[in-house]
Amino acid sequence: MHKLVFTFNLLTELPDFIGNLIELRILDLEWNNLTSIPDSIGKLNNLIDFRLFENEISFLPETFGNLTALKYLSLDISELSSFPKSFRNLKNLEWRHLNPNYSQIIRYIKTLKTVLEDMESKGLKIIYLWNDEWVDVDYIRRTVLYRENKGRF
């Protein structure tokens, strides 16, 4: 099986055996009620497209960084407290669709800065922030620098 789509299924958890689907290339779990992802997700070495938009993910396992083939990630980060350190291993990630709660976006600035510093040289060019806004990685980097320097470049 190369593609698995479970959109709009009211899933509250993902079974641990998901990690046994090692040939999976596309996993679409959008529009469910997931709050976490099992550690076994890191076994999906061939996964290139992972869609988690419109869930309530509050935690990503450290094994998330094992998804080294991942190119596309769709993720609602409103509930996410931080990215795992292993997120830096996602060297092939080209496109991220993040849905933050804009009232909480400041909370993510430092997290985004860390992720961007690690991923900028690894091919990440565009981050899609919900509300039909495409954001250039350089723009976010300049915004983070501006905030850190309290309005001075």
Automatic annotation (TrEMBL):
InterPro entries: Leu-rich_rpt, Leu-rich_rpt_typical-subtyp, LRR_dom_sf, LRR_domain-containing, LRR_R13L4/SHOC2-like. Residues 17-98 form the Disease resistance R13L4/SHOC-2-like LRR domain. It holds the Pfam family LRR_14. It comes from the Archaea. One of its GO terms (cellular component) is cytoplasm. Keywords: Leucine-rich repeat, Repeat. PANTHER family: PTHR48051, RAS SUPPRESSOR PROTEIN 1 (PTHR48051:SF1). This is Leucine-rich repeat domain-containing protein. It comes from Promethearchaeum syntrophicum.
